[in-house]
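Exercise (ungraded).
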Amino acid sequence: MNIALDAMGGDHAPEAIVAGAVEAARIYGVTVSLVGKPDVVAAELKKYNVRGLDLPIVPATQVIEMDEKPAAAVRAKSDSSMVVGCKLVKSNAAQAFVSAGNTGGALAAGILHVGRIQGISRPALICPFPTLHGVCLILDIGANADVRPEHLQQFAMMGTIYARELLGVEQPTVRILSNGEEAGKGNQLVIDSFKLLEKTPSLRFEGNIESKEIPAGLADVVVTDGFTGNIFVKTAETTARLMSQVMREEIKKSPVALLGALLSRGAMGRVRERMDDSHYGGAVLLGLSSLVVVAHGRSNSLAVRHAIRVAKQAIEHEVPAKIQRGIAALAQPDERAEAAR
Amino acid sequence: MNIALDAMGGDHAPEAIVAGAVEAARIYGVTVSLVGKPDVVAAELKKYNVRGLDLPIVPATQVIEMDEKPAAAVRAKSDSSMVVGCKLVKSNAAQAFVSAGNTGGALAAGILHVGRIQGISRPALICPFPTLHGVCLILDIGANADVRPEHLQQFAMMGTIYARELLGVEQPTVRILSNGEEAGKGNQLVIDSFKLLEKTPSLRFEGNIESKEIPAGLADVVVTDGFTGNIFVKTAETTARLMSQVMREEIKKSPVALLGALLSRGAMGRVRERMDDSHYGGAVLLGLSSLVVVAHGRSNSLAVRHAIRVAKQAIEHEVPAKIQRGIAALAQPDERAEAAR
């Protein structure tokens, strides 16, 4: 198995990226192709004992920076690590591409150079969200700001397949993120999508869900447009970080509280582990003919390693092929209906 | 000053509601008219020493339950505490109505029985969100699931006036909640609203804001549609609560951590105080000719007391009259433009 990694993308590139690649190659036994400026990557690799690990360098002379306009940058920089990485996947030299760089760039490069599965109109970003009992998968978290009900239907199908494969849930439950649970609650998109998902037999659709019900584990898959989904995940991240910061501020004000915090450090470490998105390894762009994994821009080596793990698992479970079959099955009833007309 | 309070609405009604009313009357020196079933309210009032406090009971025989369909319930139950409370405000017998009951019901009763300010097409719910330096005001958090750019423009104007009056900021900054800061980021509503707000001279518009930038205090007012705003506030609430619960679970696992938690109890209390929405007293429905304050369904007596405080402050600052003048000024350029055609 060969996973292409954007060695140049991310706030902590190339250091954290190469470090994560070395960890992943060692722990998961995969080949990680480091795509980027050869001298830069080689200099990083020298810091580690990589004997026995398969970490080839794939040259790419350009870098799409974090603040560049995604679509324009992907078109202009054909020798960027993102474009070269996606082309490796397209040509089957690698089975997945992982990047912690410019998210829009990775999406654009993936859609343009890896290509969509036939029948999928909008690839979507899926990521896990922690619940009290495990995780729930939410999509789209940012690939499509404006969507139509038939897109949410495809998201629901892709999320169902992903949850079945990666969470091991036989019949994953699907809900639509809304501002109220009852049918008829939500904006027009939610109301129309509710009606469409309700009559999609291949889905175990259970209605709307409010964000406050997500931690209770009431849904395996939550679908939403990429604008709302993006605000949802960023708000959750932000609140967790705000709360940690407020806690640090208040604890510093009192020596007794500081001692208390020292004693509960172990427990707080486990809290961080359960809440920290580094362990989830980023979001997967579903709907392409091969896998693209988008890690957080601020990814540390742990997050990069987990992003590679996510790619490995999705490859092993043949997620793209299964989505291809799923979308064909989803299209069938409509085709029959059309043929009957 | 007379504030009408829905004594029957909320998860902890009537106990917590009446308790909050007693506290508010004592601390803020206002009259609180308790609207509800006279025998029920009188029985609650008997628990307190209310000598010298002005807590009249206003009879209303019906109750709009938490799970009723708002608009239908408001129409069907003309003697409900919500409808009676709003009518008290309409007739100027009271200057504001406060309810912790069915949010949709309070919105519907307010719009139907208090009435909109002329020129305001969509009243919006505004609430404070904690930042590291104070608060930012966000609207709409749930009154309008689907809106147009001109509605966001009105929300921006109402938010500006409210921030000027209640936060004491001379020229409040306004931003649009989006999934990216740059102009051109966002869904179609955000993109179109950006262009409209940019050319509204009475606003200090500073572009988009991502939810992750809100805690840094980069905006005094954040505008959004009621669907996104509702998901934003509920996700923040939920994450804070999820994090507290995960902390409790992990602390319980170790006696040392438990001791540590005991020592840092005071600091954690202050964290709760800064993060807990009970202290913010609920959301204000702006755009009506008088004030309606919607408190959280799970309000305890503290939250009810603070909701009454919020109403009192908004009355003192003559918020509805100032919004009326603001909307007239906002409409003027358009009228001139129309006259010039």
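Further reading is listed at the end of the chapter. For now, observe: Confidence is low (pLDDT under 50) at residues 336-341 of chain B. Chain B has twelve helices and eleven strands.
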